[in-house]
């Protein structure tokens, strides 16, 4: 049957602002429209249009930009099962000799549930992190034993076989889309591909706001800290690096308190600890973005 998955509808209580994702509204909308809209179509529309649900989504872009975050939130939004997350190299090295079986096992729960419940089964999400590490172009992957090729073939045969199953979505993630085997990008496989960029200035501002929310609520963010200024000063930072910057600023603030206090004073002192602008400036001298510096410098 091609009736939309009964459980895979947007949770009525779902709010985009609550997702804790900064600066990826456009990407999220694009992912939703291209990969998930069909899951909330009214009954019969899928058949009428003669289309199938997307079963593979590729998210690509620099490290630490929120690819995993977005994949998980999509699952929450669609009321999916807790995603299974597999790391590319893990499949190959940890379970030598049984790599193909590992791939088959990833699909097993979804298959079993589909057999039992049909379209009433919930959506099962399988996430492949570092997809490029095993799914590079043929000939250039693996250790020459052919294990990697077998794993690719196993995954492709699984994905090609899920036509009858409405309840599986495979999300691949990579920093190197250019390395991915073209065979994986065909229709029916990772057919929807969305780039997740480094955040721009408004995006960074949103991320700073999300990541300092608790501090602002409990008064530990200094009044002299201006988030718009931090966003302007953190060009080329990924979301993960912004998180690192805030941690670094906090530890500068902490260290200062510890230096001035005696052991007995510290506890009381820390209760009033405030992370101030100078801690952020200090942190900005230490924490540098790893990616994209060259591109933006050339502009
Ligand atoms: P990788 O390619 O290294 O696997 P990724 O793109 O999957 O990275 P995540 O694991 O999603 O990155 O992000 C790492 C952490 O950085 C997240 O746990 C999150 O706290 C923070 N982060 C990254 N991007 C964002 C964002 N756009 N909004 C909010 N938080 C973010």
From TrEMBL:
Residues 53-200 form the AAA+ ATPase domain. It is found in: Cytoplasm. Belongs to the AAA ATPase family. Required for vesicle-mediated transport. Catalyzes the fusion of transport vesicles within the Golgi cisternae. Is also required for transport from the endoplasmic reticulum to the Golgi stack. Seems to function as a fusion protein required for the delivery of cargo proteins to all compartments of the Golgi stack independent of vesicle origin. This is Vesicular-fusion protein SEC18. The lineage of its organism: Eukaryota, Fungi, Dikarya, Ascomycota, Saccharomycotina. The chain holds residues 210 to 508 of 750 of the full protein.
């Amino acid at each position: 049957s091609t009736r939309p998955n009964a459980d895979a509808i947007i949770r009525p209580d779902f709010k985009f602002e609550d997702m804790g994702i900064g600066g990826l509204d456009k990407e999220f909308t694009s992912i939703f429209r291209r990969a998930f809209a069909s899951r909330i179509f009214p009954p019969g529309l899928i058949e009428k249009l003669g289309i199938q649900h997307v079963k593979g989504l590729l998210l690509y872009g620099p490290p630490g930009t929120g690819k995993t975050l977005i994949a998980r939130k999509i699952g929450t939004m669609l009321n999916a099962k807790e995603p299974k997350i597999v790391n590319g190299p893990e499949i190959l090295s940890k379970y030598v000799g049984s790599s193909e079986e590992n791939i088959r096992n990833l699909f097993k729960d979804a298959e079993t549930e589909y057999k039992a419940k049909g379209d009433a089964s919930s959506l099962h999400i399988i996430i492949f992190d570092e997809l490029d590490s095993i799914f590079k172009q043929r000939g250039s992957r693996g250790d020459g034993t052919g294990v990697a090729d077998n794993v690719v073939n196993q995954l492709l045969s699984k994905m090609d076989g899920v036509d009858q199953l409405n309840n599986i979505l495979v999300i691949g993630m990579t920093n190197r889309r250019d390395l991915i085997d073209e065979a994986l990008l065909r229709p029916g496989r990772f057919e929807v591909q969305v780039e997740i960029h480094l955040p721009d200035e408004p995006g960074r501002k949103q991320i700073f706001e999300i990541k300092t929310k608790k501090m602002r609520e409990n008064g530990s963010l200094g009044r002299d800290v201006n988030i718009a200024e931090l966003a302007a000063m953190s060009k080329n930072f990924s979301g993960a690096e912004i998180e690192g910057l805030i941690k670094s600023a906090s530890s500068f603030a902490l260290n200062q308190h510890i230096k001035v206090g005696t052991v007995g004073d510290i506890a009381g002192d820390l209760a009033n600890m405030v992370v101030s602008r100078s801690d952020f400036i200090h942190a900005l001298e230490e924490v540098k973005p790893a990616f994209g510096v060259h591109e933006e410098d050339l502009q």
